[in-house]
Write a structure and sequence with these properties.
The chain has two helices and eight strands. A hairpin with a 2-residue loop joins strand 4 and strand 5 (about 125-145). The chain has a domain at about 75-185: Single Sheet (Lipovitellin-phosvitin complex, chain A, domain 4). The strands form two sheets. Strands 3, 4, 5, 6, 7 and 8 form a six-stranded antiparallel β-sheet that branches. With about 180 residues, the protein is of the alpha+beta class. This is PPUP8445. One of its GO terms (molecular function) is lipid transporter activity.
């Protein structure tokens, strides 16, 4: 019984040691997973735990570079464009003329950041800058029929745009006085 207790204790200690000193687990101990995303029966993407770990590692490196640029006072522009859904279906009908259905959804996210830091010590520093996020989501749907005499369709389009802006400053003087200034449109 003592041997099992010691082996359990050693297991806990080795896990704590690995957490404190950053030692990675062996490949056999790492969790394995696979995620699949399907919409309308079509597989959009597949990723594994290894893909997620690689993205986290790349993200931490890019965040470090982003922090260095902001501390130097440079403007940083981040953007991401994605097609959330692009699907076309052809459905049979009782009349014999197939019904076409199409759905498209796109998004655009953009972020402008700029800031400067004046740091003397922990009791006296200031932070100035601005944040300007932009977002766009577009959804279009089309339903119609194609026949020998011609085409007939109904099309629907919806868009959502947002572009707020926030700039301001935060100052701490002599560890006692705090000033926060926010300029909003």
């Amino acid at each position: 019984e003592k041997e099992t207790c010691l082996s359990d204790t050693n297991g806990y200690l080795s896990q704590a040691r690995a957490a404190l000193f950053g030692r990675r687990k062996a490949d056999g101990e790492m969790p394995r997973c696979r995620v699949s995303v399907k919409i309308f029966g079509n597989e959009l993407s597949v990723f594994t735990c290894d893909d997620v770990r690689d993205q986290i590692h790349q993200g931490s490196l890019s965040l470090a570079g982003l922090a260095v640029k902001l501390l130097k006072g440079h403007e940083v522009h981040l953007s991401h464009r994605g097609v959330l859904m692009a699907e076309e279906l052809r459905l049979p009908s009782l009349s014999g003329v197939p019904i076409n259905l199409g759905v498209n959804m796109t998004s655009l996210l953009s972020l402008h950041l700029k800031g400067s830091v004046n740091y003397r010590d922990t009791s006296h520093f200031s932070l100035n800058g601005y944040v300007r996020p932009n977002a766009y989501v577009g959804l279009s749907a089309r339903m119609g029929v194609d026949g020998a005499p011609g085409q007939a369709a109904v099309e629907w389009l919806a868009e959502l745009r947002s572009s707020p802006s926030l700039d301001g400053s935060f100052q701490l003087q002599e560890g006692r006085e705090v000033r926060v200034t926010l300029n909003t449109p």
